[in-house]
Amino acid sequence: MKLNLTHTSTLIVEHCHTALALGSGDLEVVATPAMVALMENAALKAVEDHLPEGSTTVGSQIETTHLRPSPVGATLSATATLTAIEGRKLTFHIEAADEKGIVGQGTHTRFIVDRQKFLAKLSQ
Questions:
Q1: Is the pTM of this model over 0.85?
Q2: Exactly one of 32, 64, 83, 107 is catalytic; which is it?
Q3: Which of 32, 51, 76, 100 has the fewest CB atoms within 10 Å, i.e. the most exposed one?
Q4: How far is CA 118 from CA 27, 43, 111, in A?
C-alpha cells in the first residue's frame, strides 16, 4: 500500500438521500449522513485492491464539515485520498462536491482488519 491512493464515488441525489428522508433535518437537500456515507465509500474503494487476502477496512473516525446544500437531482461526488499509513491505521483527506463546487471536506480514519476475526467479535 502507498500514500496518495485515491478514489471518487458518485451518486445522483434522490429523495432517499435527503435530510427529510433520513430524519437528520426537514429539508429536501442531501443529508449530512448521506454525504458522509459517500465519503466513507470513496475511502473504502481507494484501498480495497491493495489489502491482504481476507482483509477489509472499517471506519473508526470521521471529522467533516458540510458547507452548503445540494438539491435532489445534483451529482454528488466524494473523493478520498490516502494521506497517512500507521500500521493498520489509514488516514484519508475526504472531499465532497457537486456541480457548483465543494460541499464538504474533512478527514477520515479507517483500520485494516481481518474479516473473519472482526465478524467473530459479534458472537462474543
A1: yes
A2: 32
A3: 100
A4: 37, 19, 11
Residue-level pLDDT at 123: 87
**pLDDT tens by residue, 31-69:** 999 999 999 999 999 999 999 999 999 999 999 999 999
> With contact defined as beta carbons under 8 Å apart, do 47 and 5 qualify?
yes
The model's pLDDT over 82-92, given as tens digits with 9 standing for 90+, comes to: 999 999 999 99
In sequence order, the β-bridge partners of residue 121 are: none
3-state SS track over 24-89: CCCCCEECHHHHHHHHHHHHHHHHHHHCCCCEEEEEEEEEEEECCCCECCCEEEEEEEEEEEECCE
40 as an active site residue: the answer is: yes
Write down the catalytic residue from 66, 79, 81, 95: 66
Q: Is 6 a catalytic residue?
A: no
Q: Which of 40, 95, 108, 109 is catalytic?
A: 40
